[in-house]
Amino acid sequence: MDTRPNGAIQTERSSKKGFKMGTATRADRWARAIRGVGVALIALLLVGCDGLLDVDLPTNVPEGVLTDPAMASTLVLSAQGDFECALGEYIHSFGAWTDELISAGGWLDTNAWVVRRSHDADGGGGNCPTTLFRGNYNVYQPLQLARGQGERAYGIISEHAPGELPEDREDLLARAAFYSAYATTHLGEAFCEMALDEGPIISPAEALAAAEARFSDAIDHAQAAGNTEVMHAAQVGRARVRLGMGDGAGAVADASAVPEGFVFYATYSTSVARRSNHVYLNNNANEAVSVDPRYRNLEIDGVPDPRVPVRDTEGNGIDGTTPMWVQEKYTSLGDDIPLATWQEAQLIIAEAQGGQAAVDAINRLRQAAELPLFESSDEAEIRAEMIEERRRELFLQGNRIGDMLRLGLPFDTGSDHKGQAYVEDATCMPLPVAETQNM
């Protein structure tokens, strides 16, 4: 039986709504939304199915079912499934918002998004629809749903003693905290401000601090469970947010603990549309976006860089005019996406320490990719190379928006290749007005 997660379902809920101007006014809606769990929930109660993703499911379940200890694993799988869908949408969307992808489509939302003209006010769900969230180029609500699912799972599982659960309680808590932490990380890195549950609007730094705390929980529980995979992935995540918070020493400590060659993947499949790899879907399959010229034919000292595999299709995108270049990092709708890697850990060390330590970290990555080594003692040159290494090594993995904001890198100005003017003061993503107007 296929046990991979597949999003959320609604639970029975009250129709009561809240409205608090200037705070997280959609808290009631989030609270209702995160009562949903993955489609695995009802499927686990069915017999004779070929897979969890092959059955027709009812839209509502009694909320009491979700607190049943037997459902603990399903709650965690739901958080994982929602996060993985949100991540794919995030990578594709912010790849276009930054400098990884350009518009090759004729749709208004695509052409507006790539010049940073935010139209996220009504909060659709992009390629991660539920009965509550639908639309295109929306990442806020899918990430919030994933974060809320993880928080809910963590809270429910924490209320049960180890003997009451069919699986290792510490492992379940580790994974619930892990996916909540990563969803919070992406919110903190990309958005100008955000809200957590019923609290006030908070800053990106406060969001990263919340993510750091949850990553610490994930590490502690993973150590107790003996789950080294989640432990090392959470170390990469905590190093990432610590770097963003200016805690270089803490970031290096975490990053240095990650073993060489380590990769933790977000998983995808062709079972249903929301489980697909959205980067491949929108670039390779739908041809709505093309790889930006700055990521084409990259070399190091004349050697092609295998970390940025792209190909000229020698045709145009669906707009009929934009040359269609496709990425080949992901080769199918079911390809998994690296979420936490040793390579990112090395780049964190390089950024936090600089100098010869950065040169050594860069060269460990170059050796792994069979590329010419880097030599320099000039701090400015080393920093510039570190930034370029991040751009290439983490291509289409969801790091670029955070890098550009943290490192103060310039966003495009003037007009794009279609003559559309960039919104030049738009860098971080504004908070959707739906968050403050209960839309």
Description:
By secondary structure, the chain is mainly alpha-helical. Helix content is 45%, strand content 8%. The protein has a domain at 338-389. The protein has helices spanning 27-33, 40-43, 63-66, 72-97, 108-113, 140-158, 169-190, 204-225, 228-244, 248-256, 278-285, 342-353, 355-368, 379-393, 400-406, 434-437; strands spanning 101-103, 194-195, 201-202, 263-266, 289-291, 299-300, 303-304, 310-316, 323-327, 337-341. A hairpin with a 2-residue loop joins strand 6 (299-300) and strand 7. Helix 6 (140-158) runs antiparallel to helix 7 (169-190) and helix 12 runs antiparallel to helix 13. The protein starts with 26 loop residues before the first helix and ends with a helix.
For the structure shown, list the relevant keywords.
439 residues, two-stranded antiparallel sheet, disordered N terminus, mainly alpha, two-stranded antiparallel ribbon
Elements, N to C (H/E):
HHHHEHHHEEHHHEHEEEEEEHHHHH
List low-pLDDT spans: 1-59, 120-125, 131-135
Biggest sheet overview: 2 strands, antiparallel
- The proportion of strand residues reads 5-15%
* Inertia-based shape: globular
Number of strands: 10
**Order of adjacent strands in the largest pleated sheet:** 1-5
Give the rounded overall mean pLDDT: 85
| Helix share, percent | 40-55%
State the separation between the terminal residues, measured CA to CA: 39 Å
> Tally the helices: what do you get?
16
User: Would you tell me the structural class of the helices and strands?
Assistant: mainly alpha
**What is Rg?**
21 Å
